[in-house]
Amino acid sequence: MSLPQKKEYYTYADYCSWDDGKRWELIEGVPHAMSPAPTTKHQSVSSNLHGQFFNFLSGKPCKVFHAPFDVRLNAHDNDDTVVQPDLTVICDRSKLDDKGCKGAPDLVVEISSPSTARLDRVVKFNQYLKAGVTEYWIIDLDAKTLQVCILENGRYFTTVYADTDTALVKVLNGCIINLAEVFAE
């Protein structure tokens, strides 16, 4: 790890000072190096999904952002957790500043690969749950599935969709995502 000063716990202020040319996420004060550039398939799925969100949100108050985009999940507390989801939808514009999002977005999308599966399905799952992210999507490129986690009463309830299904976006009234178009190559 080529961080300026080796310590056991880091904050967002430390994160902002790292200039080693690498992309990092910070989870409860622990740095996690991000994988190298995503695959072409990953970028295609991300672009296709971003396009559907972008088109739906045109003229509406919510905004969609793609990585790299810093999300400070506990900016008002310890400020020791910064993630860069593949896609993020934010409806409360007061959470936006010049550096990204402060607090829980309305919807987060992670496009998972074998190298990021544990981080996406366990570590980030728990961070998003703890922060109160209303809707968390995990896309599995190999299985061509979408796992949608909806926050209700402090728990995530999950539905899995196939690549031929359509998915209703709970936090965006009237938004339906065509997964055949998302997974189209």
Explain this structure to me?
- The chain is α+β, with helices and mostly antiparallel strands.
- It has one domain (38-182): Alpha-Beta Complex (tt1808, chain A).
- Helix content is 23%, strand content 32%.
- The chain has four helices and 14 strands.
- It has helices spanning 12-17, 40-57, 117-131, 179-182, and strands at 24-27, 30-33, 63-66, 70-72, 82-83, 87-90, 96-97, 100-102, 107-112, 135-140, 145-152, 155-162, 166-168, 176-178.
- The strands form four sheets. A six-stranded mixed β-sheet has the order 3-6-9-10-11-12, sandwiched between helices. A four-stranded mixed β-sheet has the order 5-4-8-7, with no helix packed on it. Strands 1-2 form a two-stranded antiparallel ribbon.
- Strand 11 (145-152) and strand 12 form a beta hairpin.
